[in-house]
Amino acid sequence: xxxxxxxxxxxxxxxxxxxxxxxxxxxxxxxxxxxxxxxxxxxxxxxxxxxxxxxxxxxxxxxxxxxxxxxxxxxxxxxxxxxxxxxxxxxxxxxxxxxxxxxxxxxxxxxxxxxxxxxxxxxxxxxxxxxxxxxxxxxxxxxxxxxxxxxxxxxxxxxxxxxxxxxxxxxxxxxxxxxxxxxxxxxxxxxxxxxxxxxxxxxxxxxxxxxxxxxxxxxxxxxxxxxxxxxxxxxxxxxxxxxxxxxxxxxxxxxxxxxxxxxxxxxxxxxxxxxxxxxxx
Length: 281
What we know:
With 281 residues, the protein is mostly helical. The protein contains 13 helices and no strands. Helix 3 (50-81) runs parallel beside helix 7.
């Protein structure tokens, strides 16, 4: 019974990883001839490429600027809407609605918002006699505009996990804290957050995966520009593989991206464990 599942896993998970690893040590694909073994040249060229270093820095800023705000907003929404009522159910649905919109469609909506002069943002700013910036054309602002879309898209999704986590917190834990004189902040710090530790860790991991694997909106809004200010690692890999036909460098970039993702995820989980202790209350 396990054989079909193992075969599927091997073909679509392990074999592609082996292929990427092999490709990262070989040169460009040549028609009618074998690929040359180049050792670590692809990795050396990768780190020497200013565009890659820029994409790496952008991804770090993008991760910090989207995962943490999305997590905080999601937790705030969940705490405000955890009680069952028709009004809360309506607001839960409204906050979750962006999750149901495909990322490309969401990017198209935000493109209409961010259009210079004729976009909705500039239209309303003009009513206040304010000249809006070039939201997607200014290198200092473009990445933040994309981050706003990401937060709007993901916060409602993370809210569902926090709602489930909050509903699992025992009511007597809050009652005991109130009897001990704990205020709202103390209850959040010493009751809610420790019980939500597994949920927070899970959301962090999901958030990190999203910021590395989702680039559809970058393609729609900016295509990595202007001046690589919104270029992210996965979009850089796409450019190398599809636009530059450099499969070796694209494979090397994929491995670096995977290694960074694993390292950051493991570090996040260890930090979270140290922050809240080994055991729940």
